[in-house]
Amino acid sequence: MTLRRLALAGGLGLALVAPASPATAAPTATTSVASSTPATRATATAPATTATATIVYAPRIPQVNRWRVPVSVRQVIVVSATRWRTTYGTVSLYSRTATGWHLSARWPARLGYGGLVVASRRVQDTSTTPAGVFAITQAFGRQANPGTRMAYTKVTMDHWWVEDRRSAYYNQMRLGSQGGFLRRTAGYNSSERLATMGAQYDYAAVIEFNRPNPVIGRGAGIFLHAYGRGATGGCVSIRHDHMAATLRWLNPAAHPRIIIGEDNWLALS
Fold first, then answer.
1. Does some domain include residue 226?
2. What is the pLDDT of residues 207-237, one digit of tens each?
3. What single-letter DSSP state applies at residue 210?
4. In Å, how far are 78, 107, 225 from 82, measured between CA atoms?
5. pLDDT value of position 49
6. Residue 117, class by beta-carbon neighbours within 10 Å (0-12 exposed, 13-18 middle, 19+ buried)?
7. Spatial separation of the C-alpha atoms in residues 209 and 98, rounded to whole Å
8. Residue 60 lies in a domain
9. How many domains does the chain have?
10. Which DSSP category does 113 fall into?
């Protein structure tokens, strides 16, 4: 999100929550899935079978006690801030090997004008950065792929990020020529025409906040992107060269996550 578009949001990331957050209940370490044999009609004697899947967690992530992530996750970006209402933060990149988590890089960052808010409480157009755990699955930019292994789209004038609350394509990248949303860049239910958003969208990674099943009005278009002119409309921004380096570092095979929050909140267990 940028100064020109105030798209925000709240939603669940794909990492597993161990303790309860202010807005969500914590899942247990195991999940039970009930299933039954298909039948044309119900019978009193048909037993249900229960399968239990055990979740295997990775070691705890530095700076973070609030959540643990599945063992399949080997890259984590931690975005931390000293206060909820600040527009400044720190981005730390962690990789996991057989010997544990290792710091790959640490850089200053900017946050939303409204500071941080727990993702499930976020409201669109409040310029807040959602706090929580989210996947990163794709990237885009006005510039050519800098060498990332993530799915990457070099945007053109036909690429939009849909923030129209009435659209079936809310919080998705979509071509304007495909239609299905209000194609304007200002006013209520406007969207972002990505190629016109300036150098901050030279390189960006999509934070899977309020996706893929969005709550309308919670927000859309939350990215990790290059610096703009200051605080953001809800995204996380870092220096241009740092963003390019982050994209080169990201590896979809490592199932990367981004964890965002205030320092003390992240450290709670």
1. yes
2. 999 999 999 999 999 999 999 999 999 999 9
3. T
4. 13, 15, 21
5. 58
6. buried
7. 30
8. no
9. 1
10. T
